[in-house]
Automatic annotation (TrEMBL):
Its main location: membrane. Keywords: ATP-binding, Cell membrane, Membrane, Nucleotide-binding, Transmembrane, Transmembrane helix, Transport. This is ATP-binding cassette subfamily B protein. It comes from the Bacteria. PROSITE patterns: ABC_TM1F, ABC_TRANSPORTER_1, ABC_TRANSPORTER_2. The chain crosses the membrane at residues 49-74, 86-106, 165-185, 191-208, 279-299. The lineage of its organism: Bacteria, Bacillati, Bacillota, Bacilli, Bacillales. GO terms for cellular component: plasma membrane. InterPro entries: AAA+_ATPase, ABC1_TM_dom, ABC1_TM_sf, ABC_transporter-like_ATP-bd, ABC_transporter-like_CS, P-loop_NTPase, Type_1_exporter. Residues 369-602 form the ABC transporter domain. CDD domains: ABC_6TM_Tm288_like, ABCC_Glucan_exporter_like.
Amino acid sequence: MSSNQLKAPFQYEKIPLKNVTVDNKKKAKNMSNTLKRLWNYLAAEKGKLILVILMVTISSGLGLLGPFMVGMAIDDYIVTQEAAGLGMLLVGLIIVYLFHSLSIFLQNYWMIGIAQNTVYTLRKDLFKQFHRLPISYFDKRQYGDLMSRLTNDIDNVNNTLNQSVIQIFASVLTLIGTVAVMLYLSPILTVVTMSVIPAMFLAMRWITKRTGPLYKLQQNDLGEVNGYVEEIVSGQHIVKTYSQEEKVIRGFEKRNHSLKQTGFWALTIAGFIPKIMNMLNFLSFALIALVGGILVIVYDQQLVTVGIIVIFTEYARQFTRPLNELSNQFNLLLSAIAGSERVFQVMDETIEEIDETNAIEMENTKGTIKFDHVTFGYEDTAILKGISFEANPGETVAFVGHTGAGKTTIINLISRFYDYNTGKITLDGIDLKTIKRSSLRQHMAFVLQDPFLFHGTIRENIRYGRLDATDTEVEAAAMDANAHDFIVKLPNSYDTILDQDGSGISQGQKQLLTIARALLAAPSILVLDEATSNIDTITEMKIQEALKRLMVGRTSFVIAHRLNTIQEADTIIMLEHGEIIEQGNHDELINQKGSYYGLYKGQIQ
Ligand SMILES: Nc1ncnc2c1ncn2[C@@H]1O[C@H](COP(=O)(O)OP(=O)(O)OP(=O)(O)O)[C@@H](O)[C@H]1O
């Protein structure tokens, strides 16, 4: 079995950058759907959301009241020189701004809580989903890209919820309030203030139309870079062994460059927004001062007062600021929607359990596996053709054949990582497709060529086979696996912490640990992918001895690379291009003097 079933596949070749073209209609449809789904997450925080809305309403109202009071101060108290009234108004103004600040503090406080809880649930759901997806999903994707969805994309949603939601809501309220008060004070100056809006609107539209697709492209490129880094870091040994550093750096350079380009353009175009808004803002200031000044002089303050001009200059800023904010936040929102779309894409993938509503839960199994004219292909081309054999409890079936012959694929079907196309596979006479995957895998254990160990103690790694095993049971399994002796010689014995890849102990020792793990799991079906790598003869003997102990009474499938280790197997199946070309025990196959015989002779020599 190739180790890529459990580890990231290592690929040098560049996966072509997705050329994202944005179909507007499709995008809009996805966007509203994504927003709806995001809203479902937010709805869990209804209580806090209501408080935030209340605080935003209060702060927006108080934000409007402030300049209005300043205008009043000018017209009613400064021009008429009434000091007492002015003093009272100033105290009022201080109170207004104090409450304004308090309401802003509270809205931020509650919104941060909402954002954290939302992304917490989102992360949890996505991580759960990873575990419900079939192996075929992971076989086809770069791990780094999936990681990037769990980290960057969700971070994006977090940032937007923290900043944008409040800003957008506050901006809309401020806009409506400002227009209402402006119309009440002077319709003429309102028209003057608003005359810059068409220009602002056009500029914003032009920019957001370009930044939306760019943000999406940027997210994709980031996923691409992360995927590549993950792949190369996990394949460092191979990169160095084959002196491929230059090629790998060039591969990274290409992806990094693409990310730089999209990032540059997304930010540059988005960066135009504040500049254009500022320019238009100054223009509206000048227009208000000009038209207001003329009105004051011509109508002698009957139509417009000095205080009203001051209020309008402040409102003009308040009016364009939310527009400015809206466009900025809208950009952030677009990037968060792009991010959450990528998260929801994973959540929408077909999960393994979907067809398991009526599946059979197998409490106990004998372990009789039967293949009856089974065919299978990962995609359209057939890989396995007409495979038939039977494996009974206590028996060992070994698969032999050249690389790509289909040995791993047979194991993939037995463990239901993939489902067969035609024919039938049964476990104790029950069709495998009708058995719940988790219940089937409960009765299986794997000892792989490249043993996978998690970061944690040796004890925890062995206990992974059966989580409720006691310390005594863990140690008994280690003894049966011939691992106890080397474990107790380690500085912290069973509590020695291993790195994720188990560095610190040898390849053979790792193998012994995975055998102990399998012994603890006590499955009825065993899959052994024979180690071919550099294991010393003594450890090799220990492994063989431990495996023999492990295989007693179980149905064992062995992917054999060296034929001398499978001479005692009950059935040896010789595969070629996905077909069984010879089947029998060692002596029978030797007597046949066919392909197995040839292979055996070749290895002996
Ligand atoms: N996930 C996959 N998607 C598509 N094709 C696959 C996949 N995994 C394997 N194959 C193809 O199926 C065929 C059989 O592969 P398989 O891994 O079963 O061979 P194998 O006998 O185990 O080889 P090896 O000894 O090299 O591990 C090969 O042609 C391979 O390219």
